[in-house]
Amino acid sequence: MAVLLAAGVAVAGWGRLGHGRDVLRAGIRAVVQLAAVSFVITWVVHSLWFTALFVLVMFSVAVRTAGRRMTDAPGWSWTWAAAPIGAGVAPVLALLLVSRLLPWQGLSIVPVAGILIGGALTATSLAGRRALDELAQRHGEVEAALALGFEDRDARLEICRTAAATSLVPALDQTRTVGLVTLPGAFVGMLLGGASPVAAGAVQLFVLVALLAVEAVAIVVVLELVARGLVRRPVQWRS
């Protein structure tokens, strides 16, 4: 692990990617966080109350991470990331629990919730950044649309929707190639835990489909927030 981390840092530095220190910090942070989670998870999963609290912590960290990735505007504008992540994850997780496809057990809820929140985080941060980048680069076209009589919301959506929509591509590619290119973590984990290949495949399938739904919802909500000017950068466009 140390060798691989050092290699990642060295290659990032040699290629002048500008993320050498970030790679090192991310690797060290992952070690510390996973070590902490390994100790905490053993008693968290035995109580639904502690499980709910743990999921809330995951959600809070995802909101802050995605919000900071989207915008560097001062204040608390990053908290708007709670809307796309919550809108995507909450209904899907509730449906899985109510339908009993996901047992009411911490050992089942925590990993699935983590996967869904992680997918929503990625979709939110990517969609937000791409939408805001597109508006910053094409602010003249936004002004042209306003001059033609478009409402602010519609003008911004017209410019940034296509760029933000590409944030769904990684989830689409993962779903399309599952079993052919990659064997995702849920599938492999269940096999290593002694489940049958059919059971493992069924669980992985509903996780992948759930991720598509979660990320699609998150992207749509992000677009709405950006179009309405609720998520923006300090200097982005003139209106």
From TrEMBL:
Q: Name one Pfam family in it.
A: UPF0014
- Tagged with keyword Coiled coil: no
GO cellular component, as recorded = plasma membrane
Its membrane topology is listed as:
Multi-pass membrane protein
Give the transmembrane ranges.
30-63, 75-98, 104-128, 178-199, 205-231
Classify the source by domain of life. Answer: Bacteria
Keywords (A to Z) from UniProt: Membrane, Transmembrane, Transmembrane helix
Protein location = Membrane
Task: Spell out the family assignment given in the record's similarity comment.
Answer: Belongs to the UPF0014 family.
Q: Which named protein is this?
A: ABC transporter permease
Q: Which organism is it from?
A: Streptomyces tateyamensis
